Q: What sequence folds into this?
Protein backbone atom coordinates (compact mmCIF):
# COMPACT_ATOMS: atom_id res chain seq x y z
CA UNK A 1 0.00 0.00 0.00
CA UNK A 2 1.09 3.63 -0.53
CA UNK A 3 3.34 5.18 2.10
CA UNK A 4 0.96 8.09 2.72
CA UNK A 5 -2.03 5.83 3.42
CA UNK A 6 0.03 3.68 5.76
CA UNK A 7 1.34 6.75 7.56
CA UNK A 8 -2.19 8.07 8.10
CA UNK A 9 -3.44 4.67 9.24
CA UNK A 10 -0.58 4.46 11.73
CA UNK A 11 -0.81 8.03 13.06
CA UNK A 12 -4.49 9.02 13.25
CA UNK A 13 -5.77 6.27 15.61
CA UNK A 14 -2.68 6.59 17.82
CA UNK A 15 -3.18 10.36 18.03
CA UNK A 16 -6.71 9.68 19.29
CA UNK A 17 -5.43 7.20 21.90
CA UNK A 18 -2.72 9.65 22.91
CA UNK A 19 -5.22 12.42 23.49
CA UNK A 20 -7.58 10.10 25.38
CA UNK A 21 -4.86 8.93 27.79
CA UNK A 22 -3.72 12.51 28.46
CA UNK A 23 -7.28 13.82 28.86
CA UNK A 24 -8.32 11.01 31.19
CA UNK A 25 -5.96 12.31 33.88
CA UNK A 26 -8.47 14.98 34.79
CA UNK A 27 -7.01 16.29 38.06
CA UNK A 28 -3.34 16.90 37.30
CA UNK A 29 -2.71 16.66 33.58
CA UNK A 30 0.89 16.29 32.55
CA UNK A 31 2.75 19.07 30.67
CA UNK A 32 2.17 18.54 26.97
CA UNK A 33 5.88 18.95 26.17
CA UNK A 34 6.98 16.28 28.64
CA UNK A 35 4.15 14.00 27.56
CA UNK A 36 5.16 14.27 23.90
CA UNK A 37 8.81 13.60 24.79
CA UNK A 38 7.74 10.21 26.11
CA UNK A 39 5.71 9.59 22.96
CA UNK A 40 8.66 10.51 20.74
CA UNK A 41 10.97 8.27 22.73
CA UNK A 42 8.67 5.35 22.01
CA UNK A 43 8.30 6.32 18.34
CA UNK A 44 12.02 6.87 17.65
CA UNK A 45 14.48 6.18 20.46
CA UNK A 46 13.00 2.92 21.73
CA UNK A 47 12.51 1.67 18.18
CA UNK A 48 16.16 2.25 17.28
CA UNK A 49 17.44 0.55 20.43
CA UNK A 50 15.01 -2.33 19.92
CA UNK A 51 16.25 -2.86 16.37
CA UNK A 52 19.85 -2.97 17.58
CA UNK A 53 19.00 -5.34 20.44
CA UNK A 54 16.88 -7.60 18.26
CA UNK A 55 19.62 -7.77 15.62
CA UNK A 56 22.17 -8.85 18.22
CA UNK A 57 19.87 -11.54 19.63
CA UNK A 58 19.01 -12.71 16.12
CA UNK A 59 22.69 -12.97 15.26
CA UNK A 60 23.43 -15.22 18.22
CA UNK A 61 20.25 -17.26 17.73
CA UNK A 62 21.31 -18.03 14.16
CA UNK A 63 24.13 -20.18 15.58
CA UNK A 64 21.86 -22.26 17.80
CA UNK A 65 18.58 -22.40 15.81
CA UNK A 66 19.04 -23.37 12.18
CA UNK A 67 15.35 -23.54 11.25
CA UNK A 68 14.34 -20.03 10.01
CA UNK A 69 10.67 -20.43 10.99
CA UNK A 70 11.52 -21.61 14.51
CA UNK A 71 14.08 -18.82 14.88
CA UNK A 72 11.52 -16.23 13.76
CA UNK A 73 8.96 -17.49 16.28
CA UNK A 74 11.56 -17.51 19.04
CA UNK A 75 12.43 -13.91 18.26
CA UNK A 76 8.75 -12.92 18.18
CA UNK A 77 7.68 -14.73 21.34
CA UNK A 78 10.72 -14.35 23.57
CA UNK A 79 13.17 -11.79 22.22
CA UNK A 80 10.72 -9.03 21.26
CA UNK A 81 8.99 -8.75 24.69
CA UNK A 82 12.34 -8.81 26.48
CA UNK A 83 14.15 -6.28 24.28
CA UNK A 84 11.27 -3.94 23.48
CA UNK A 85 9.96 -3.55 27.03
CA UNK A 86 13.45 -2.67 28.20
CA UNK A 87 14.01 -0.11 25.44
CA UNK A 88 10.59 1.44 26.04
CA UNK A 89 10.81 1.40 29.82
CA UNK A 90 14.37 2.69 30.22
CA UNK A 91 13.20 6.24 29.51
CA UNK A 92 10.87 6.09 32.52
CA UNK A 93 13.86 5.36 34.75
CA UNK A 94 15.23 8.78 33.77
CA UNK A 95 11.99 10.76 33.96
CA UNK A 96 10.87 9.27 37.29
CA UNK A 97 13.03 11.92 38.98
CA UNK A 98 10.95 14.71 37.40
CA UNK A 99 8.64 16.40 39.92
CA UNK A 100 5.73 16.05 37.51
CA UNK A 101 6.07 12.25 37.72
CA UNK A 102 4.70 11.73 41.21
CA UNK A 103 2.10 8.96 41.36
CA UNK A 104 0.49 5.93 39.71
CA UNK A 105 -1.57 8.05 37.33
CA UNK A 106 1.50 9.81 35.99
CA UNK A 107 3.25 6.47 35.47
CA UNK A 108 0.28 5.19 33.48
CA UNK A 109 0.15 8.35 31.37
CA UNK A 110 3.88 8.53 30.59
CA UNK A 111 4.28 4.79 30.09
CA UNK A 112 1.19 4.72 27.89
CA UNK A 113 2.59 7.54 25.75
CA UNK A 114 5.83 5.61 25.18
CA UNK A 115 3.92 2.47 24.27
CA UNK A 116 1.70 4.34 21.83
CA UNK A 117 4.71 5.93 20.16
CA UNK A 118 6.36 2.54 19.77
CA UNK A 119 3.13 1.00 18.47
CA UNK A 120 2.67 3.77 15.91
CA UNK A 121 6.11 3.33 14.34
CA UNK A 122 5.90 -0.45 14.45
CA UNK A 123 2.45 -0.34 12.84
CA UNK A 124 3.72 1.87 10.05
CA UNK A 125 6.54 -0.55 9.20
CA UNK A 126 4.15 -3.52 9.28
CA UNK A 127 1.61 -1.79 7.04
CA UNK A 128 4.32 -1.10 4.45
CA UNK A 129 6.02 -4.50 4.71
CA UNK A 130 3.11 -6.91 4.90
CA UNK A 131 0.19 -5.01 3.36
CA UNK A 132 0.73 -6.48 -0.09
CA UNK A 133 -2.96 -6.42 -1.02
CA UNK A 134 -5.69 -4.06 0.15
CA UNK A 135 -7.39 -6.87 2.08
CA UNK A 136 -4.17 -7.78 3.91
CA UNK A 137 -3.41 -4.14 4.57
CA UNK A 138 -6.88 -3.44 5.96
CA UNK A 139 -6.75 -6.47 8.25
CA UNK A 140 -3.34 -5.39 9.53
CA UNK A 141 -4.65 -1.88 10.21
CA UNK A 142 -7.66 -3.18 12.12
CA UNK A 143 -5.81 -5.76 14.23
CA UNK A 144 -2.67 -3.79 14.97
CA UNK A 145 -4.52 -0.54 15.69
CA UNK A 146 -7.14 -2.18 17.91
CA UNK A 147 -4.89 -4.64 19.71
CA UNK A 148 -1.12 -4.62 19.09
CA UNK A 149 -0.59 -0.87 19.55
CA UNK A 150 -2.86 -0.93 22.59
CA UNK A 151 -0.84 -3.86 23.97
CA UNK A 152 2.31 -1.71 23.80
CA UNK A 153 0.45 1.06 25.62
CA UNK A 154 -0.88 -1.23 28.37
CA UNK A 155 2.42 -3.07 28.86
CA UNK A 156 4.62 0.01 29.31
CA UNK A 157 1.90 1.82 31.30
CA UNK A 158 1.93 -1.11 33.75
CA UNK A 159 5.65 -0.60 34.29
CA UNK A 160 5.13 3.13 34.69
CA UNK A 161 2.32 2.63 37.19
CA UNK A 162 4.50 0.58 39.53
CA UNK A 163 7.34 3.10 39.19
CA UNK A 164 4.93 5.88 40.13
CA UNK A 165 3.58 3.90 43.06
CA UNK A 166 7.08 3.19 44.37
CA UNK A 167 8.43 6.75 44.06
CA UNK A 168 7.26 7.98 47.47
CA UNK A 169 7.27 4.62 49.22
CA UNK A 170 9.96 3.13 51.52
CA UNK A 171 13.20 1.86 49.95
CA UNK A 172 12.03 -1.76 49.81
CA UNK A 173 9.28 -0.77 47.36
CA UNK A 174 11.78 1.14 45.21
CA UNK A 175 13.92 -2.00 45.00
CA UNK A 176 11.18 -4.58 44.40
CA UNK A 177 8.52 -2.85 42.31
CA UNK A 178 10.54 -1.66 39.26
CA UNK A 179 11.67 -5.20 38.26
CA UNK A 180 8.17 -6.51 39.05
CA UNK A 181 6.69 -3.83 36.79
CA UNK A 182 9.14 -4.61 33.99
CA UNK A 183 8.39 -8.34 34.32
CA UNK A 184 4.65 -7.60 34.15
CA UNK A 185 5.14 -5.54 30.99
CA UNK A 186 7.17 -8.35 29.43
CA UNK A 187 4.53 -10.92 30.39
CA UNK A 188 1.70 -8.93 28.77
CA UNK A 189 3.81 -8.55 25.63
CA UNK A 190 4.86 -12.22 25.67
CA UNK A 191 1.30 -13.51 26.18
CA UNK A 192 0.02 -11.50 23.22
CA UNK A 193 2.87 -12.45 20.87
CA UNK A 194 2.70 -16.11 21.88
CA UNK A 195 -1.04 -16.42 21.43
CA UNK A 196 -1.21 -14.78 18.00
CA UNK A 197 1.76 -16.81 16.74
CA UNK A 198 -0.41 -19.93 16.60
CA UNK A 199 -3.85 -20.22 15.07
CA UNK A 200 -4.98 -22.55 17.87
CA UNK A 201 -4.36 -19.91 20.56
CA UNK A 202 -5.14 -16.68 18.71
CA UNK A 203 -8.64 -16.41 20.21
CA UNK A 204 -7.15 -16.72 23.70
CA UNK A 205 -4.77 -13.91 22.81
CA UNK A 206 -7.59 -11.57 21.88
CA UNK A 207 -9.49 -12.51 25.05
CA UNK A 208 -6.37 -12.02 27.19
CA UNK A 209 -5.61 -8.62 25.72
CA UNK A 210 -9.25 -7.54 25.95
CA UNK A 211 -9.15 -8.46 29.64
CA UNK A 212 -5.87 -6.60 30.06
CA UNK A 213 -7.38 -3.49 28.47
CA UNK A 214 -10.36 -3.65 30.83
CA UNK A 215 -8.04 -4.03 33.82
CA UNK A 216 -5.96 -1.12 32.50
CA UNK A 217 -9.00 1.17 32.23
CA UNK A 218 -10.30 0.18 35.67
CA UNK A 219 -6.82 0.70 37.18
CA UNK A 220 -6.59 4.10 35.50
CA UNK A 221 -9.97 5.10 36.95
CA UNK A 222 -8.94 3.94 40.42
CA UNK A 223 -5.68 5.89 40.14
CA UNK A 224 -7.61 9.04 39.18
CA UNK A 225 -9.93 8.52 42.17
CA UNK A 226 -6.85 8.17 44.35
CA UNK A 227 -5.67 11.56 43.05
CA UNK A 228 -9.04 13.03 44.01
CA UNK A 229 -8.66 11.66 47.55
CA UNK A 230 -5.18 13.19 47.82
CA UNK A 231 -6.51 16.58 46.74
CA UNK A 232 -9.42 16.37 49.19
CA UNK A 233 -7.24 15.28 52.12
CA UNK A 234 -4.51 17.84 51.61
CA UNK A 235 -6.80 20.78 50.85
CA UNK A 236 -9.14 19.93 53.74
CA UNK A 237 -6.15 20.47 56.01
CA UNK A 238 -5.54 23.82 54.32
CA UNK A 239 -9.20 24.77 54.74
CA UNK A 240 -9.01 24.00 58.45
CA UNK A 241 -6.20 26.57 58.63
CA UNK A 242 -8.36 29.03 56.66
CA UNK A 243 -6.16 29.07 53.58
CA UNK A 244 -9.21 28.45 51.36
CA UNK A 245 -12.97 28.07 51.95
CA UNK A 246 -14.06 24.65 53.19
CA UNK A 247 -16.75 24.44 50.52
CA UNK A 248 -14.09 24.62 47.81
CA UNK A 249 -12.43 21.40 48.95
CA UNK A 250 -15.15 19.09 47.64
CA UNK A 251 -15.41 21.06 44.41
CA UNK A 252 -11.67 21.03 43.75
CA UNK A 253 -11.50 17.25 44.28
CA UNK A 254 -14.31 16.47 41.83
CA UNK A 255 -15.38 17.22 38.27
CA UNK A 256 -17.47 20.10 39.63
CA UNK A 257 -14.29 22.17 39.40
CA UNK A 258 -14.80 22.36 35.63
CA UNK A 259 -18.17 24.06 36.09
CA UNK A 260 -18.60 27.81 36.16
CA UNK A 261 -20.10 29.90 38.95
CA UNK A 262 -18.49 28.55 42.11
CA UNK A 263 -15.65 31.09 41.99
CA UNK A 264 -14.81 34.18 39.98
CA UNK A 265 -14.36 32.94 36.43
CA UNK A 266 -11.36 35.21 35.93
CA UNK A 267 -9.27 33.11 38.31
CA UNK A 268 -10.99 29.71 38.20
CA UNK A 269 -8.49 27.88 36.00
CA UNK A 270 -5.46 29.36 37.75
CA UNK A 271 -7.05 28.68 41.14
CA UNK A 272 -7.62 25.02 40.21
CA UNK A 273 -4.05 24.65 38.96
CA UNK A 274 -2.48 26.24 42.04
CA UNK A 275 -4.70 24.36 44.51
CA UNK A 276 -3.98 21.04 42.81
CA UNK A 277 -0.24 21.72 42.78
CA UNK A 278 -0.40 22.61 46.48
CA UNK A 279 -2.16 19.34 47.30
CA UNK A 280 0.35 17.17 45.44
CA UNK A 281 3.38 19.05 46.74
CA UNK A 282 2.12 18.52 50.29
CA UNK A 283 1.82 14.79 49.60
CA UNK A 284 5.30 14.73 48.12
CA UNK A 285 6.74 16.72 51.02
CA UNK A 286 5.19 14.35 53.53
CA UNK A 287 6.68 11.31 51.82
CA UNK A 288 10.13 12.71 51.02
CA UNK A 289 13.40 12.85 52.92
CA UNK A 290 16.59 14.87 52.81
CA UNK A 291 17.05 17.64 50.25
CA UNK A 292 13.88 16.72 48.36
CA UNK A 293 11.82 17.33 51.50
CA UNK A 294 13.21 20.86 51.76
CA UNK A 295 12.52 21.53 48.07
CA UNK A 296 8.93 20.33 48.35
CA UNK A 297 8.42 22.29 51.57
CA UNK A 298 9.47 25.48 49.79
CA UNK A 299 7.06 24.72 46.95
CA UNK A 300 4.23 24.10 49.41
CA UNK A 301 4.85 27.54 50.90
CA UNK A 302 4.97 29.09 47.41
CA UNK A 303 1.69 27.55 46.23
CA UNK A 304 -0.05 28.29 49.53
CA UNK A 305 0.86 31.97 49.20
CA UNK A 306 -0.23 31.98 45.56
CA UNK A 307 -3.59 30.51 46.56
CA UNK A 308 -4.19 33.09 49.26
CA UNK A 309 -3.22 35.94 46.93
CA UNK A 310 -5.71 34.72 44.33
CA UNK A 311 -8.49 34.58 46.87
CA UNK A 312 -7.61 37.95 48.38
CA UNK A 313 -7.72 39.50 44.93
CA UNK A 314 -11.38 38.59 44.40
CA UNK A 315 -12.69 39.19 47.94
A:
Amino acid sequence: MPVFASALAAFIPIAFYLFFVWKFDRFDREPVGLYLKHFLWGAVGAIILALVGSYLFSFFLSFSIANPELRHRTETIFVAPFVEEITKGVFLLFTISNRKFDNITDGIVYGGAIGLGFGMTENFTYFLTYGKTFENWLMLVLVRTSFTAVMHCVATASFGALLGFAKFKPLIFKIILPPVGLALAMFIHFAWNFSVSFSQTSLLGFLFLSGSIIIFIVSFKLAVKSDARIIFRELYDEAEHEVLPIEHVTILSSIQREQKGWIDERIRKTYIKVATALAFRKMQWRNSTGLNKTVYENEVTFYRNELMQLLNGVR
